[in-house]
Amino acid sequence: MLWQIDIENPHLFINLESQVQKYICKTCGYVYDPAVGDPDSGIEPGTPFGALPDDWVCPTCGTPKSDFEPEDAAATNVPLMEPVPA
Ligand SMILES: [Zn+2]
User: Fold this and answer.
1) How much is the pTM?
2) Where are the beta strands (DSSP E) in 1-86?
């Protein structure tokens, strides 16, 4: 049953990656990057999306946190390794 372990590990990896997960505003396309934060709103770099205050809104259009979605929602199937140009 090693196959099941191989399948579950990537899922665990994704959960850990949520600490640096980028989130996209579904209204305007603004990307919240935890590594950058949102200095204009008093959010320091290194703040995970999940740690943002409940009243935080998109700095561009004012959309609430609840209308953001994980950036990798469409990139889950992208290979982690890209071909290296010769
Ligand atoms: Zn927005």
Assistant:
1) 0.64
2) 23-25, 31-32, 68-70
Q: Ligand 1 centre and the CA of 23: distance in Å?
A: 11
pLDDT surpassing 60 at residue 74:
no
Distance 31 CA to ligand 1 centre (A): 8
Q: How far is the CA of 4 from the centre of ligand 1 (A)?
A: 39
* Residue 20 to residue 49: CA distance in whole angstroms: 8
Q: What is the DSSP letter of 38?
A: B
Other C-beta atoms closer than 10 Å to the C-beta of 64 total: 13
Q: What would the pLDDT profile of 21-55 be if each residue is shown by its tens digit?
A: 999 999 999 999 999 999 999 999 999 999 999 99
Count CB neighbours of 68 within 10 A.
Answer: 22
